[in-house]
Amino acid sequence: MTFTGKNILVIGASSGIGLATAQQLHAEGATLFTASRHLSPELAALSTTHLPYDATQPVGAAFDALPEVLHGLVYCPGSIKLRPFERVPSEDFRTDFELNVLGAVQALQATIKRLKKAEGGASVVLFSTVAAAVGMSFHTSIATAKAAVEGLTRALAAEYAASGLRVNCLAPSLTDTPLAAALLNTPEKAEAGAKRHPLQRVGRAGDLAGMAAFLLSDQATFITGQVLAVDGGMGKLK
């Protein structure tokens, strides 16, 4: 894959899957724009154009520095709050929805005209979770929000197909990133997490970055409206 001459925006690129995606796209020649609340040392090392941005706040002028044409957008912000349903306050449902769904909505509304201008079509990659398709205890809030992301993916893919804009979604399982650190911070937790997957390991940020890069690339120009599992077989195999 090559991204030479392509302008791509990665939102939530300071760590985890977003950082791994930015690193891969940078290595493959993309003209990379990143947006996050913090500029991590790892992200700063890429020498990309960084835009300070909080996905829970109005976009305002945050994206004014973007070029007139965008060839791709990846929205990576997410959350993991696992607790019994009876102990989940309604505010947690609201917070998860605002970050995962409304954050993606406002970012796309602010950039859609730039994406539509891409010759040959642009690509958008969003993120769901295996828990949106497979019922998992203690996942009510995040599963609800991410199920909405999947609906958003399909609706946008239908609406913009005639414009050549592709919209797809990745649904990972437990992935070894800072966001999931509390779920993997002991050898016992790490082993238990690995054993839940048919492939006997948890995901790595690079697993998702590689698939995101593929969906952004010219090799995936006939793929849109899809929710693709990158979950070690958890969603389909027993």
From TrEMBL:
Cited InterPro entries: KR_dom, NAD(P)-bd_dom_sf, SDR_DHRS6-like, SDR_fam
Occurrences of domain Ketoreductase (ranges): 6-173
Keyword Cytoplasm: no
Record's keyword terms, sorted: Oxidoreductase
Family: Belongs to the short-chain dehydrogenases/reductases (SDR) family.
PANTHER family xrefs: DIHYDROANTICAPSIN 7-DEHYDROGENASE
Descriptive protein name: SDR family oxidoreductase
